Amino acid sequence: MLDELRELYQEVILDHGKNPRNLRRIGDANHHAQGNNPMCGDTLSVYLLTNGQNLIEDVSFIGKGCAISMASASMMTEILKGKTVEEAATLFHGFHDLCTKDDADLSEAEATDADAVERLQVLSGVRTFPVRVKCATLAWHTMDAALKGDAEISTE
């Protein structure tokens, strides 16, 4: 079972790392932030377009980084498109807990989008490599900062 999960993890990371989804700049984005992970050298910018009902109509990123960072950003953009700002915050907290806690309570995130939580489970393996947690969560922290109006974050 562990070998199957490890293989799936590698396949997903490689797929999204080599072929990132939504790797582009949104010209009319109304939320934007830059993120930096100096430990690994990952840098990225997250762009979001929300409407008057706080629905994320579009989300994208540009940047460079390790395969985990790029894969996480790619998966995040796929998952958040069509979600509300509140749902994005719930998924952010759930994903962060998934990557940092062995006993993460994912009930709120699962109630928001159980399929997304299941897809994100493949990145939970970073929990055993603390230095890689920042790689996996950088895009999510940057998205959260963008929605809160913060222009820059660093995971130092």
Quick overview:
It contains five helices and four strands. The protein is an alpha+beta fold and 156 residues long.
Give the SSE map.
Blueprint: H1 2-18, E1 31-37, E2 42-50, E3 56-64, H2 67-80, H3 85-100, H4 107-120, H5 130-148, E4 152-154
Parallel strand pairs: 1-4
Antiparallel strand pairs: 1-2, 2-3
Helix pairs in contact: 1-2, 2-5, 3-4, 3-5
Features:
156 residues, alpha+beta, 51% helix, globular
Note down, in words, how this protein is organized.
By secondary structure, this protein is of the alpha+beta class. The chain is 51% helix and 18% strand. It is built from five helices and four strands; from the N terminus they run H-E-E-E-H-H-H-H-E. It has a four-stranded mixed beta sheet, with helices on one face. Strand 2 and strand 3 (56-64) form a beta hairpin. Helix 1 (2-18) crosses helix 2. The protein is globular. The model has no long low-confidence stretch (mean pLDDT 92).
The strand count comes to 4
N/C terminus separation: 34 Å
The whole-number mean of residue pLDDT values reads 92
Rough outline: globular
Strand content: 15-25%
Approximate helicity band: 40-55%
**Quick one: biggest sheet?**
4 strands, mixed
- Write down the Rg: 14 Å
Strand arrangement within the widest β-sheet reads 3-2-1-4
Structural class: alpha+beta
